[in-house]
Amino acid sequence: MAKITKECKEVLEKTEWLAIGTAGEKGVHLVGTWGSYIQTLGIEEETIYIPVYGFNQTEQDMKNGSKVEILCASMDVDGAHGAGQGYRLNGIAKIETSGDKVSQTKELFPWARALLVFKVQSMIPLL
Question: Which helix (H) or strand (E) holds 62?
């Protein structure tokens, strides 16, 4: 796994939303979530936690071996050409339905049925 860089973590801590992509028999599948959700759960050295409500196709794609990509951006972080920086994160993920982190997630987000645990393998700066 890859350690999340300081620059990437700053974007994750300031992003409003994330797009989460998988691939499966039906092609590319995208879901989204709010940045405040990952910010509330905390961003670890190489791991991002995302509360899960639906994500049924995402879960199926992951069970079938799909890698996961996350796209995030923030206008509040300077990029190479002025305001705005983004990242495309590649990695592996699983959906957990039990454990301490899942219990914590369900306390913070009562609507959550599970927790998506994303392990970063690479980060590509955008913008």
Answer: helix 56-63
